């Protein structure tokens, strides 16, 4: 992945709010739902989302700025470490740091952790035991789009030995959830298991709360005052939502059964928060109407006297 600051078009001194604003602008422009009939932007959308995921996390951003991790979030290899071609090919003796022989296809596992992180961009691996132990396990990371985590699917994952396996993503997979691939560790590691930690990419419109989906939808002044049926996005596509007359800004409405499918617990709901939005250009007719109406119909929305 390229420099996350360049991908979002912000300077390194940008505040968290400026980073978020830049991401939302790009995400709405590049989101696949907005690109019907267009091609070439899907990868850019993924890159922009990955960049925001890194820069929106204060710890990850600080570590990236210090050069401790790369743009994918992977740990950087120790300075001066060199992995010989013989060790990569799995033949002949090769020397690791300090001149220790790796012998055949073996190499120094103390440093392999960081090397694999740089090669495959999958995040830091946990320390591995000596290479002659049986059934060694390895841990990798895998980024998954929000909707794919919600609905389930398959995603390719490259293993340290170059093999590519398809990982089944169960519907309702959560950020940080760990999946187990039995017996998929490289043969030189004793055929142990691969543990895959899922990192769910953020979505520009949806957030998850347990089995429920949350989103905010703008409505016009007329729709809020008079009521209307509007179209809103859900994880299953657009559905109709009836806005009652007099709906206030911030009102929360429920779409039953439009959330996530949870094993043994049915399906969650989708909660829509209404955001009453005035026109960008305020005309004299609306201003004069509100002035006359408010003079005849005064009402309070804050405690009298204000905060003490």
Automatic annotation (TrEMBL):
Any GO BP: protein refolding
Composition bias, Gly residues: 93-102
Database matches in InterPro entries: DnaJ_C, DnaJ_domain, DnaJ_domain_CS, HSP40/DnaJ_pept-bd, J_dom_sf
CDD domains recorded: DnaJ, DnaJ_C
Gene Ontology cellular-component annotations: cytoplasm
Positions of region (Disordered): 68-104
Keywords, alphabetical: Metal-binding, Repeat, Zinc, Zinc-finger
One annotated GO molecular function: unfolded protein binding
Keyword Repeat applies: yes
Domain J: 3-68
The protein's name in its UniProt record: DnaJ-like protein
Organism listed in the record: Stella humosa
